[in-house]
Amino acid sequence: MYLQKRNRILRKSAAIRSLVAETVLTPNDFIAPLFIQEGHNEKTPIPSMPGYFRNSLDITVNEVKELYNLGIKSVLLFVKALDETKDNEGKEAWNPNGLMQRSIKAIKESVPEMFVMTDVALDPYSIYGHDGIVKDGEIVNDETVDALIKMSVSHAVAGADMVAPSDMMDGRIGAIREALEESGFTKTGIMSYSAKYASCFYGPFRDALDSAPGFGDKKTYQMNYANRIEAINETLQDVEEGADIVMVKPAMAYLDIIREVKNAVTVPVSAYHVSGEYAMIKAAAERGWLDENKAIIESLTSIKRAGADLIATYFAKQAVLLLNQ
Ligand code: PBG
């Protein structure tokens, strides 16, 4: 054959393949989510997330040091609230001495360079396991936003670099920005979960924090996975309201949304590679059906290729160890 163009030339060796690679993962791409619990020297395995743990604060602080030394610059904190602190309003969420507030302080004290982000939503604190306040069987928007404001400001007071509202209430980004401004937190940012879908892939996370909804589901606030244009509208609105970083969640089943959001906005885009996506790879690898390390790097590379500037993933540490090999 005489061919004008032979595409395999650029795939001939490892050297040329890496020279022309369009997408390269680095430790700067990752946000490491951390589950924190009360106690001392407590490391609790999460059955549906093999290899992942819910740790007491002392262990968490050591983990954060290790992550920072590996090159990971950001953590996203989640706490497991004690049952006796839960109510309908989620008041424990803005307790100045709550586990979240103590965790932010302890982490910023021991690793000040680590960029600390915090989950903002009422579900870990709600007796109903919902992200908002429940009235007559419904999740009420505006009262919930008032609670989220208090929660966000209390995280800022404790020293959080960025709050990450994951609740999907309307108007919360603008309201939180305004509250941070009014309280003088002009350097505290907002990473908005802008396009967060009502997804079955959050199952293992809800096991980790014991935060599954006690009744119904989250479909009246999280998005319908059938929708695409809605993701753009939600995201543009959050940018307008002051979000510094926007997010698409989950990631692997939503690569199309990540790309569209990336094309639509000029702020950094993050993607959340969620608990169920972690569990799927772990489960298949445990059975010997997938090469775990290859599946991790391929998945994360696809999320970045789709347009994510940042990836929140339970594989952050494992991926960096693999990249460093
Ligand atoms: C809470 C929250 C959830 C996740 C992040 N923040 C669960 C939910 O919305 O039910 C899911 C993360 C994961 O599955 O890894 N609002």
From TrEMBL:
EC number(s) stated in the UniProt entry for this protein: 4.2.1.24
Catalytic residues of the enzyme: K196 (schiff-base intermediate with substrate), K249 (schiff-base intermediate with substrate)
Known catalytic reactions: 2 5-aminolevulinate = porphobilinogen + 2 H2O + H(+)
InterPro entries: ALAD, ALAD_AS, Aldolase_TIM
Alphabetized UniProt keyword annotations: Heme biosynthesis, Lyase, Magnesium, Metal-binding, Porphyrin biosynthesis
Binding sites annotated in the UniProt record for Mg(2+): E234
One record GO biological process: protoporphyrinogen IX biosynthetic process
Pathway: Porphyrin-containing compound metabolism; protoporphyrin-IX biosynthesis; coproporphyrinogen-III from 5-aminolevulinate: step 1/4
GO MF annotation list: porphobilinogen synthase activity; zinc ion binding
CDD domains the UniProt entry points to: ALAD_PBGS_aspartate_rich
GO CC annotation terms, alphabetical: cytosol
Superkingdom, natural source: Bacteria
Gene3D superfamilies given in the database record: Aldolase class I (3.20.20.70)
Quaternary context: Homooctamer.
Similarity remark: Belongs to the ALAD family.
Protein name: Delta-aminolevulinic acid dehydratase
Source organism per UniProt: Hydrotalea sandarakina
Upper lineage: Bacteria, Pseudomonadati, Bacteroidota, Chitinophagia, Chitinophagales
